[in-house]
Amino acid sequence: MLFQKDGIRHIIFDADDTLWENNIFYLKTTRDFIGLAEEAGYDPAEIEKLFDELELRVVREHGYGSYNYVYILDQIYATHQRIAKDKFTELIKRFKGFMTRKPDFFPLVPETIHQLSKKFDCFILTKGDQAEQEGKILRAGAEKLVRKYFVVPEKDDHTYRQLLSSHQWIPEECCMVGNSPKSDINPSLRIGMKAILIPYENNWKLDHDPLPVQDKNFLILDEFEDLIPVFCEDDSQS
Ligand SMILES: [Mg+2]
Question: Measured in angstroms, how far is the CA atom of residue 18 from the centroid of ligand 1?
Fold first, then answer.
């Protein structure tokens, strides 16, 4: 393994789609919404295009989170009123239910973080709406697994630099673990941190970004639990 784990002291986990599923509920709701529009006689390709354009603009102007997502669907519904109102209302209600339930950890996430915490300082760094992200963390009980969690409006180079400098952490001693090349991996690597990608099949379109070449600072793993052999098994045995 090329990845150089020596010297790492702080491990920072992304939350959505790294510790638990999240984007799948957005994808499902968008698919269902487009289905309702099609039922009402609208062209599904046109609705999807409209959705993508609005999403890009709303995220840029207002940030992430389910509130802004529902706003997008409301906007489209307002101009496509043949969509059945009762079904639309039901769809929004179901989506809000997804967003306020207790997140289900991916397999072995709590156990893995617990194990890693014996050797490393573990943290959560998630982007989005403060109350919404915090709600998910607390409902999941994830705050008990880490020393601290941080909710930020955006995860870019500046965010990571600020997080590190406010704690006087050295970049080479910090490793980011997440599913998003754009928000978790590339900014961390650019500021000199290490990064581990755990790909998620239902990644959000706006999270796509070219992947770096694997080298001593960057590693791709299949499953969250694969962090254990990387960090907790003696080099002489691996
Ligand atoms: Mg994520």
Answer: 5
